[in-house]
Amino acid sequence: MKILSITTASPGWFSVFKLGDHTVVHEPVAVWALIQDIDLGEKVVGFNQSGGGLSFDEKNNTFIRYEQINEVQMRANKWS
Fold it and tell me: What are the sequence ranges of the domains in the chain?
């Protein structure tokens, strides 16, 4: 994978993951990157902060989707 361009993500963007026990987890997207990948081609993807570095969300087999969550939903903690 090669990063062609990178920019910080606006607040409110989350990567959604479904764990083995069917728990749904939301991780804030830290940056968006235009990547070039053998399997994916050229594509914009999100990275979240994980373990002191950045984690490429779509390479995680529990990744479901990206989701924008508005301020009201964030305060109420109501997103799926």
Answer: 2-76
Task: Give the integer Cα–Cα distance in Å for 26 and 11.
Answer: 13
Long-range CB contact pairs, 18-25, < 8 A, 24+: 18/62, 18/64, 19/62, 20/62, 24/64, 24/80
The C-alpha atoms of residue 6 and residue 32 are separated, in whole angstroms, by 6
* pLDDT tens-place values along the chain, 80 residues long: 899 999 999 999 999 988 889 899 888 999 999 999 888 789 898 988 876 667 776 777 788 999 998 777 766 765 55
Measured between alpha carbons, how far is 77 from 47 in angstroms, rounded to an integer? 22
